[in-house]
User: Fold this.
Amino acid sequence: MLLIQALWVAVITFLGKFDFFIGNVMLQRPILLGALVGLAFGNLREGIIIGFAIELAFIGTQMLGTAVPPDFTVGGVLGTAFALKAGDSSSVGLTIAIPVAVLSALLVSFFYAVITPLFDRLCDKYAAEDNSAGITTSFMVAGFLFDITFAVIAGLAYYFGTGTVKEVLAAIPNNLLKGITVATGMLPALGFAQLLQNMVDKKTAVFFFLGFLLAAYLKVPIIGIVAFALVLISLMSFMRNQNSKETMTSSNSSTLENGDDDNEF
Assistant:
């Protein structure tokens, strides 16, 4: 049973890293990987809940340039898997996912700094020889090596770490566990803050506060806020089109009047 679960962890981690081949389709996010882990472990509901909690903690995390963020893919898979194995809540999943994500990010940095440049040199060599097949092969081998490395590591970490994780969780005092629960409850706010830092500006801040007021004071559910947003977007789009038509009409009228004046002159 443990071996089968470890194999599933490896396979799901491989799929999470598979954007190297198929492009970024958000498959690497914890909210999807947690659901896959829950499905594989026979507890889809808890997998979704734990994956969603981990997603909130990493929602504003993206790789920008050469800055390597915590590896939320491996962290999401192992955090969900260990939490389901221990039969604990999403707070425990977060407690496991965050340090795992940080440690995995170190391996990602090592891979990008040491392994990837070797394949870059091969691609340069094949490019100089006008060998497109060699470039494609190098790219595919590098991607597969990257994916399989993290898949194997995640599977082994789950297989050999389950007993250790259970012992660690049992040894954590209740007061400390409550403190960890409170701290992890603050992480979603931090994730949203990171996300809003990139999205919100003077033009869009008013809409953010409008949604907040609708939810906090009028108790409008998320579906209702989305409906309000769709209506507001439709009205703004209609008004913008009307203004564009009026501007175009005014411009054409002005051109015709100037043309008539020239003819009369």
About this structure: The chain is about 85% helix and 0% strand. The CA atoms of residues 14 and 148 lie 6 Å apart. Residues 2-199 form one domain.
